[in-house]
Design a protein that fits this description.
By secondary structure, the protein is mostly helical. It is built from six helices and three strands, in the order ααβαβαβαα.
């Protein structure tokens, strides 16, 4: 059961990458809408406190987006419940492109697997990947395990 769940979680980044590549291409084809958008400032929800790593990354991206889009990107931190408050607000926002989120993917994906949340992973559509931040499981080099499967079988 744990192995199947782990493998299912591994498929999520592949899905997100495919969507991240397809969606920008799709939106570029709709030149009429692209010519009008954005017509006003965009709000970026960050689900963690000001000054943390996620917030700093979001603010760096916001500065770049402002220059590219010609509109302000207003970063709003919605901290609480391990990010759930911000993720929920993002999931409930209008689907008009004027509210975007900068999410911490591992936390966003894992919370609904650990407890009841007020959002679902399916409520959010990824439109781009900004940071590649791999995380790995490790053991001491002198341990009896050399692979994940060795460890699981233990």
């Amino acid at each position: 059961m744990r192995t199947a769940r782990f493998r299912a979680l591994l498929l999520i980044p592949a899905f997100l990458l495919a969507a991240a590549l397809w969606l920008p291409l799709h939106s570029m084809l709709d030149s009429h809408r692209a010519a009008r958008f954005p017509g006003r400032p965009i709000e970026m929800i960050v689900s963690f406190k000001e000054g943390g790593g996620t917030d700093i990354g979001a603010r760096l991206l916001a500065g770049y987006l402002e220059r590219e889009l010609g509109q302000p990107i207003i970063v709003r931190n919605v901290d609480g419940k391990d990010g759930e408050l911000g993720f929920t607000e993002l999931a409930r926002a209008r689907a008009d492109g004027y509210t975007i989120g900068f999410i911490n993917l591992p936390t966003f994906v894992s919370l609904p697997g650990r407890r009841q949340t007020r959002y679902r992973v399916e409520d959010i559509t990824p439109i781009g990947n900004y940071v590649l931040d791999p995380a790995v499981l490790v053991v001491r080099s002198d341990s009896p395990w050399q692979t994940f499967e060795d460890w699981l079988e233990y």
